Amino acid sequence: MDLWAVAGLVALAVVVEAPLLLGGTALALDAVTQFVPWYAWLGEQLRGGNLPGWNPHTFSGMPFAGAPLSGWGYLPAMLLYTVLPPALATPAYLVSTLALAGAGMYLLARALRMPITGALVAAVAFELSGYLNLANPCCFAFAQVEAWLPWTLLGVEIAARAGGWAGRVRGWALSGLATSQVLAAWFGQGSMYVLLALMGWIFWRTVLDPPAADPWRARPARLALHAAAVLGLGLALGAAGVFPRLELNAVSSLAGGYPAADGGQAAAVGGWRVADFARLASPGIWYAGVAPLALAAAAPFVARRRYAVPFFTLLAAAAMVLALERQTPLHAALLAIPGADRLHPHSPERVLLLAYPAIALLAGTTVSALHMKLSSASGGRRVSERRRWVGAVALVLVTADLAIGLGRGVAELRSARRSERLVDVSVGRELRPSPAGAWLAEAGPEGRYFGYAPQVAGGRAQPWAYSVRWADPQVHALMVNNQAMAAGLRDIQGYDPAHIARYDSLIQALNGRGQDYHFADVRPAGLFSPLLDLLNVRWVLLPSDQHEQQGDPTRAGELAARLPTVYDDGTVRILARPSALPRAWLVHNARREEPDRALELLASGAIDPAETALVEVDPPPLQAPATEDQVQVTRYEPDRIVVETASDTAGLLVLSEIAYPAWRATVDGQDTPILVADTALRAVAVPAGAHRIELRFASAALTWGTAVTASTALALIIILRRTRR
Questions:
Q1: Which residue(s) pair with 672 in the sheet?
Q2: Rounded-to-integer distance, Cα 339 and Cα 620, Å
Q3: Which helix (H) or strand (E) holds 466?
Q4: pLDDT value for 444
Q5: Element (H, E) at 104
Q6: Which residues, in sequence order, are CB contacts of 596 under 8 Å at separation 6+?
Q7: pLDDT at 515
Q8: Best label site of 114, 455, 478, 571, fewest CB within 10 Å?
Q9: DSSP for 110-160?
């Protein structure tokens, strides 16, 4: 029966997703602009047998495996987007996420000794919850963490109930695998919440309410054993993703967490008031279902301590308290955990991801308790029929309630004007370059570009209106967001929560102001900055209808009047920037400057980067050449660049490539240090004469992390095979 129940939950996932897959795939902002392009590029790299270390296509280049939401290390994405084309992988991924969530919840409920009817109610209440379903086509990471949460708890339950080491290892392996997937899915805030819930569950099942009546003096050791095994395996199995993400975080714009306000704590964004909890009973993205909420509220009275009701009641209550914008003693306790003060204050309502599985399980416990009461009553066949009717009615009520709420929520998001809006898109079309993008691809790989079409509000030019216009065909036509990845182009912009901090500083100097941490966009003030030349920007994409007009705050018309148009298809025009510096060049003059001062000099035009490099250490000895230098990039791959130079004096090779600690350089096969030039670029000292310079992305974090994950997985497979004998 359990196999049939799981099969039914998989079928339910297909049925639920079907309306969102007809006529295209219904997706929202983050799915279209981030996750699908990332996963598609990840699959392309894996099919080619490459570790996806460096992404040269967005933000002038940045780590890929180290990007916290890239999909690297997340097994469903890696598998589906490697074996299937993105147009098929995306709907398969959406269905698999719901199926994974429902199956995990059902098996957890069964491990807690719930009857089949109660376990099905819990699974359906979770699988059809608004948060899981409406985050699924929007914010992949949110749904991924939700889907794996029951599996982390299930592994602990199996290990805690096991009578020997073989069963414990199987439970630890399952929980460790699920934990590794949580870390791969949402490294940061979401992982923190799941790890806290997981540690609370281990404490509950080893100290407060162990399956066996262990003596109290033995419980602390059992707690330490289970916690160390689960966390150790989770980190080891997730090391391939965790290590490079820690490497990037150390030098990123989000080092330590979300942007800090005064006092070092993350700036407070979001949070609920008490009245906002009505959303849990109102169809929409936060809908938990009236029927599941009612059943969950009855659980402490009907089931009492059975099925771990106290734990899940406390988990749901704690999540709701921590979701409040108002500070409470529980907030103070959470923020005392190292790093939590840089994560939780940013949209604290996200902690409610812990409440939905708790509510679903509590709903299942109420039905299970009623089932058990009827089972213990006398009456024979009549009682058996009542028991079946109670389970069937509860399951139908929960399913109908959530299905209706989900339908209303989908309709609401389809009509939304904000970034959460659901739109039927063709994944294949989204990943194909627009006509302007195709022209750039044919023009050759030399040179970067950016798309520019800000909106005007209140008399001021606003940054890219992603939250309003992401579904506008013009957005696709301008090749913004992360479209450069699929087209093989190089964009200086993109959409990603984490960037290299040096790059953000450069873009801030270019624009004369900062912006939201997701973006590194060119603003009106930056359109004529000499820093664009430094980044090898040869092309600018504008809407064709941009014309110079007096008082235009976007300055797009002014730019179009200054630069030659080399392409115009009536929707998009491409402007050429002949002043852009090449991919690589030699300078014979360098001086030491602090990063902020260097950016000030470069942005003002006081220093010509084609002639002088500003470095952060004492520069090597350089001399002016008597003849013209020769510099040629002979190989350009994501993780490897080869440059051949010839000069009659020593020089400094500067590349329009963003500096990052994992890059290594050789000159004629001999290791040589990479210097940071002009605040954010790579530079290599080159002796006089003809030389071959090779730069490789050689992230020790990625190499060692992958080795740790692979060796741990292999060891577990061997151990599990032997324990089955």
A1: 665
A2: 40
A3: helix 466-469
A4: 80
A5: helix 86-111
A6: 505
A7: 84
A8: 455
A9: HHTT--HHHHHHHHHHHHT-HHHHHHTTT-HHHHHHHHHHHHHHHHHHHHH
Q: Which amino acid belongs to residue 266?
A: A
Q: Which of 516, 425, 487, 434 is nearest to 37 (CA)?
A: 487
Give the separation between CA 717 and CA 725, rounded to whole angstroms.
13
What span, in angstroms and rounded, lies between the C-alpha atoms of 87 and 347? Answer: 32
Q: Between the CA of residue 637 and those of 28, 537, 643, what are the distances in Å?
A: 31, 19, 12
More confident residue, 384 or 453: 453
Q: Could you tell me the two tokens for 389?
A: 């009717």
Nearest CA to 661 out of 692, 615, 698, 708 is that of 698
- According to the model, what pLDDT value does residue 29 have? 86
Q: What pLDDT does 52 receive?
A: 93
Q: Show the CA angle centred on residue 631, arms to residues 625 and 632, nearest 5°.
A: 170
Tell me how far apart the alpha carbons of residues 143 and 690 are, in angstroms, rounded to a whole number: 54
> Which residues lie below 8 Å from residue 100, measured CB to CB, with a gap of 6+?
76, 147, 148, 151
Q: Which two tokens stand for residue 126?
A: 């979770």
What is the C-alpha end-to-end distance of the chain, expressed in Å? 26
* Residue 334: both structure tokens together: 């959470």
Can you tell me the mean pLDDT for 498-505? 94
Give how far Cα 343 sits from Cα of 334, 338, 634, Å: 10, 10, 44
Report how far residue 513's alpha carbon sits from residue 647's, in angstroms, rounded to the nearest whole number. Answer: 39
pLDDT of residue 199: 97
Strands 675-677 and 681-686: antiparallel
d(CA 291, CA 366): 11
Angular region, 15: left φ>0, alpha ψ -120 to 50, beta rest: alpha
Name the pTM for this structure.
0.94
For residues 593 and 494, what is the distance between their CA atoms, to the nearest angstrom?
Answer: 29
Mean pLDDT of 430-458: 86
Q: What is the mean pLDDT of residues 282-302?
A: 94
pLDDT over 70, % of the chain = 95
Q: Is 235 strand, coil or helix?
A: helix
Mean of the per-residue pLDDT values for the chain?
Answer: 91
Backbone angles phi, psi at 6, to 5 degrees: -65, -40
| β-pair partners for 697 | 663
Angle at 191 between CA 188 and CA 193, to 5 degrees: 110
- 30: pLDDT strictly greater than 60: yes
Confidence of residue 375 (pLDDT cuts 50, 70, 90): low
Q: What is the pLDDT, as a whole number, of residue 21?
A: 86
Residue 382 CA neighbour count, 13 Å, CB half: 3
pLDDT score recorded for residue 466: 45
Q: What is the pLDDT of residue 35?
A: 95
Cα separation, 317 vs 149, in Å, equals: 17
Instruction: Kindly report, residue by residue over 250-259, the tens digit of the pLDDT.
Output: 999 999 888 8
Q: What is the mean pLDDT of residues 471-482?
A: 85
Asked if 655 and 481 count as a contact pair (C-beta separation under 8 A), the reply is no
Residues whose CB falls within 8 Å of the CB of residue 493, separated by 6 or more in sequence, listed in order: 58, 59, 450, 451, 464, 480, 519, 520, 521, 522
